[in-house]
Amino acid sequence: MVYIVSWDEFVDRSVQLFKSDPESTRYVVKYRHCDGKLVLKVTDNKECLKFKTDQAQEAKKMEKLNNIFFTLMARGPDVDLSEVNGKEQVETQPVKKGRGRKQ
């Protein structure tokens, strides 16, 4: 088990691994608060892919990977992944700028 250094390579290889054998592929997330380390692991009992980070920026990318795996598990391995986003775009109302507390 070696760690993959590049995030994009980890995502691509993880998706390929899931598509090749969706019945036995597992996705594990492990976070150690005392170390501040996040470890992601995707395995099918033959091949094991691991990614380790301590950067908050990388942890935010994990949400997109979760959505990719949720989509693959729910819709099947033949789904088009180009429409999967990290966060759904929600229209927000413009924030009113006030003058502070009314007296």
UniProtKB/TrEMBL annotation:
Residues 6-66 form the SRP9 domain. Keywords: Cytoplasm, Ribonucleoprotein, RNA-binding, Signal recognition particle. GO terms for cellular component: cytosol; signal recognition particle, endoplasmic reticulum targeting. GO terms for molecular function: 7S RNA binding. Its main location: cytoplasm. It is found in: Cytoplasm. Residues 83-103 are annotated as: Disordered. The keyword Transmembrane helix does not apply. It comes from the Eukaryota. This is Signal recognition particle 9 kDa protein. It comes from Brassica carinata (Ethiopian mustard).
